[in-house]
């Protein structure tokens, strides 16, 4: 069976539970990710000549498995696995790996043996055989690594989550650099001076049409090692990542100067208050301090011509390092806090110089709480030396409102990413979102780049019309503001509104009829029908494309082409936001479709049911396996039943409806007769046994006849006919008890029928899988599963059109339904009635 992404992720996350107990997330991530790395390179490169990673004999994951249960397992992993591996590969260093014999982190004695043994066992699972379960060209393992790092960053807390840049932000930065459109070669270089785990570098490199050369530096040596492993897992084993403080000790030099690159990206620590540590005093303009300043550090002219950033704010120190590291034709992007846009003094002088030289090409404001080290909002500063010129305009985007909640963090959605990239690259002006700001306007604002000065992203205030409140009528301007609806349905406005006086209209239909008047209007109905045809056209084309997929296709390429085609298909569709439609596809891809595609690309169009076998973990039967039925991941049972056994499913649904009715009748009887004097008042628990016992006490044995067929229920019969066994005179209590007993017997009979029908239907469906042809499976998956789900989601967008218009018209109608004079008159009438009532009660109201 092929490896599903979601199963891979969950299996790997289980490994974290083996270490969670006594260790911080920022520590146990190192062990889990190293195990993932060792398993992967062993599966992929062990025994292969000329492999980019050498696996020495005796140092593979299989050799690590042999250490399970040994009392010195941690020490042996260090000596027999990691040490030889590091010695055989120059890009690896044993000092960068965590210590697998650290008693402070892993425990001692039996604890460390059990912990490491269990951890290794998790990676032994057959579904984690990476040599057989990897779609060539798709970074399923690299994505798993990213997934784990994102979770580790979330759990590591405020001070330790900075090793990871959210993948969504990395995607934005990679796309806006334009590397995809550039003519890249192996000589093209990309550099990140604060690369963390390398995710940002990898996203940029992934945008290129060819392999490019990757350079990165990371202050924390352990994180630098994670980055190197990340590169290898993403098939970038030649990437160069070096540990060290970039500002004090840059590792990439050309002689005495900083090395320059074609593309530079960074997510440096926000407002680093210790950025001067280790810098030469001549560079930062402070007295020498032998305890904190390395006198041997050289001046790399990063601040020449710009000025020195303030000692307690390191944002511009990193930004100017990036500027100095860019070639004369280079492009760059850096994530910084919003303060760099408006803070004064030394930072204002640097900002002014960047704008005047034309290096600063764009600013993209991001939502708050995206990053793992802080909750403050940040922005992307876009740099471009190739197009730099004096008095250059700056393209600004305020994307602060486009995000979704994801636990305790915010996250950019696929639609947010695509919109930012589209608008920036095409320089599209959108009111309240983006515009190109001329140099002269920036100069008038004294080079303050705070986004609200240039983009008003606040929602427009809904203006209250005083005259309308005084004299009635709906303001014409409010109705005209709905012009996008009237353009699609020109006569709909005349159907909903009628003239009142100049610039004011009245509602032409009853308030309760607004919704139906809109939905049943001929033009609106025709428009909705056209939207359905519009989707059907895309669905038919997509269905043909998807059914032609052969094993070995690249799922990431597929979803890119499919989503771009859908986005383009809805580009000119009125009243529908194409990015909303796009998001529906991307959401479905994330939850369902990508797993299906990874199954298909590795196994083909095969729908083979599998038994669900669960191992008992507790009690006397611990270790035994229980059969929980069967399942089929690619083609779930409900799809087969719906297409091939609809009549049987309908009969089962009828039985289930009858069962619900019988169960409801039991609940009604219990509620009706549970009072102090009710038939069930003295029962601790109302059930068949208690009711039967009470009937016996009354001398009534109950009905001898079997319950009526469910197809002809008569639930009130017992209550309407006399109790005939042991009593000549019917009683209310007896009739209630007999009614309950009959409904209970009917419920039991229906449950038995349903269980039998479900078993028969289950067997029919299971047997039918063997009869499915490849074309049958394609129809079930593509048409009944994928496109049917997407159709439901996108039709929800069309429903929202009528809902939005109905809601707005209702709001306006209710707001101005009663003018002030009418309200005043009504208040007076009510006041008069209250006074009259008080007088009749003997109270004088003054």
TrEMBL record:
Domain DNA methylase adenine-specific positions: 138-462
E.C. designation(s): 2.1.1.72
GO biological process: DNA restriction-modification system; methylation
InterPro entries named among the record's database cross-references: D12N6_MeTrfase_N, DNA_Adenine_Mtase, DNA_methylase_A-5, DNA_methylase_N6_adenine_CS, SAM-dependent_MTases_sf, T1MK-like_N_sf
Classification via Pfam families: HsdM_N, N6_Mtase
Catalytic activity: a 2'-deoxyadenosine in DNA + S-adenosyl-L-methionine = an N(6)-methyl-2'-deoxyadenosine in DNA + S-adenosyl-L-homocysteine + H(+)
Sample GO molecular function, one term: site-specific DNA-methyltransferase (adenine-specific) activity
Family the UniProt entry places it in: Belongs to the N(4)/N(6)-methyltransferase family.
Protein's name in the database: site-specific DNA-methyltransferase (adenine-specific)
Species assigned in the record: Pelagicoccus enzymogenes
């Amino acid at each position: 069976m092929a490896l599903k992404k979601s199963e891979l992720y969950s299996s790997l996350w289980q490994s974290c539970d083996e270490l969670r107990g006594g260790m911080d997330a920022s520590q146990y991530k190192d062990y889990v990710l190293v195990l993932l790395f060792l398993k992967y390179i062993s599966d992929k490169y062990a025994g292969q000549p000329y492999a980019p990673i050498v696996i020495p004999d005796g140092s593979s994951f299989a050799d690590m498995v042999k250490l399970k249960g040994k009392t010195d397992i941690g020490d042996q992993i260090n000596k027999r696995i990691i040490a030889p591996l590091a010695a055989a590969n120059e890009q690896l260093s044993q000092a960068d790996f965590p210590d697998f014999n650290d008693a402070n982190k892993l425990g001692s004695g039996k604890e460390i043996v059990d912990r490491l043994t269990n951890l290794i066992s998790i990676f032994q699972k057959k579904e984690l055989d990476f040599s057989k379960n990897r779609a060539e060209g798709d970074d399923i393992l690299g994505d798993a690594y990213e997934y784990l790092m994102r979770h580790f960053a979330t759990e590591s807390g405020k001070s330790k989550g900075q090793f990871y840049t959210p993948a969504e932000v990395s995607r934005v930065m990679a796309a806006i650099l334009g590397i995809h459109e550039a003519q890249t070669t192996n000589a093209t270089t990309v550099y990140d001076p604060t690369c963390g785990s390398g995710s940002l570098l990898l996203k940029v490199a992934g945008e290129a049409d060819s392999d490019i050369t990757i350079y990165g530096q990371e202050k924390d040596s352990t994180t630098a090692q994670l980055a190197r492993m990340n590169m290898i897992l993403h098939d970038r084993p030649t990437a160069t990542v070096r540990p060290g403080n970039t500002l004090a000790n840059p590792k990439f030099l050309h002689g005495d100067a900083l090395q320059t690159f074609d593309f530079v990206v960074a997510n440096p620590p926000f407002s680093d208050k210790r950025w001067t540590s280790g810098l030469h005093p001549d560079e930062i303009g402070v007295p020498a301090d032998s305890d904190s300043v390395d006198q041997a550090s050289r001046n790399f002219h990063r601040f020449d011509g710009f000025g020195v950033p303030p000692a307690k704010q390191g944002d511009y120190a990193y930004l100017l390092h990036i500027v100095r590291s860019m070639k004369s034709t280079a492009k760059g992007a850096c994530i910084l806090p919003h303060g760099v846009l408006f803070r004064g003094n030394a930072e204002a002088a640097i900002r002014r110089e960047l704008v005047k030289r034309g290096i600063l090409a764009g600013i993209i404001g991001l939502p708050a709480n995206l990053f793992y080290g802080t909750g403050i909002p940040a922005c992307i500063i876009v740099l471009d030396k190739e197009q730099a010129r004096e008095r250059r305009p700056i393209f600004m985007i305020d994307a602060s409102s486009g995000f979704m909640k994801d636990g305790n963090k915010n996250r950019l959605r696929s639609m947010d990413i695509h919109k930012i990239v589209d608008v920036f690259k095409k320089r599209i002006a959108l009111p309240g979102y983006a515009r190109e700001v001329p140099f002269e306007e920036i100069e008038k604002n004294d080079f303050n780049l705070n986004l609200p000065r240039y983009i008003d992203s606040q929602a427009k205030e809904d203006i209250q019309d005083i005259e309308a409140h005084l004299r009635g009528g709906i303001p014409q301007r409010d109705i005209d503001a709905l012009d996008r609806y009237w353009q699609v349905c020109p006569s709909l406005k005349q159907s909903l509104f009628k003239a009142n006086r100049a610039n004011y209209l009245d509602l032409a239909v009853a308030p309760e009829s607004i919704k139906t008047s809109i939905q049943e209007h001929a033009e609106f109905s025709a428009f909705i029908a056209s939207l359905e045809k519009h989707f059907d056209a895309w669905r038919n084309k997509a269905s043909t494309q998807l059914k032609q997929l052969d094993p070995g296709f690249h799922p990431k390429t597929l979803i890119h082409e499919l989503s771009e085609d859908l986005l383009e298909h809805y580009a000119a569709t009125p009243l529908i936001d194409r990015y909303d439609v796009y998001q529906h596809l991307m959401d479905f891809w994330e939850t369902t479709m990508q797993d299906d595609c990874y199954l298909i690309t590795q196994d083909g169009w095969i729908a083979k049911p599998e038994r669900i076998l669960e191992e008992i973990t507790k009690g006397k039967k611990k270790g035994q396996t229980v059969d929980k039925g069967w399942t089929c991941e690619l083609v779930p049972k409900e799809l087969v039943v719906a297409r091939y056994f609809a009549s049987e499913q309908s009969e089962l649904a009828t039985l289930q409806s009858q069962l619900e009715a019988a169960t409801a009748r039991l609940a009604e009887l219990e509620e009706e007769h549970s009072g102090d004097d009710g038939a069930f008042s003295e029962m601790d628990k109302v059930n068949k046994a208690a009711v039967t016992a009470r009937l016996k006490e009354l001398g009534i044995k109950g009905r001898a006849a079997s319950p009526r067929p469910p197809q002809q229920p008569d639930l009130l019969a017992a209550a309407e006919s006399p109790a005939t066994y042991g009593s000549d005179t019917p009683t209310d209590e007896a009739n209630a008890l007999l009614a309950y007993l009959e409904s209970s017997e009917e419920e039991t009979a229906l449950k038995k029928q349903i269980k039998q029908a479900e078993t028969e239907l289950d067997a029919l469906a299971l047997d039918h899988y063997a009869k499915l042809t490849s074309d049958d499976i394609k129809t079930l998956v593509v048409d009944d599963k994928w496109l049917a789900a997407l159709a439901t989601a996108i039709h929800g967008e069309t429903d929202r059109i009528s809902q939005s218009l109905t809601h707005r018209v209702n709001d306006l109608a209710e707001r101005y339904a009663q003018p002030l004079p009418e309200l005043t008159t009504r208040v007076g009438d009510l006041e008069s009635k209250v006074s009259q009532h008080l007088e009749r009660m003997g109270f004088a109201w003054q």
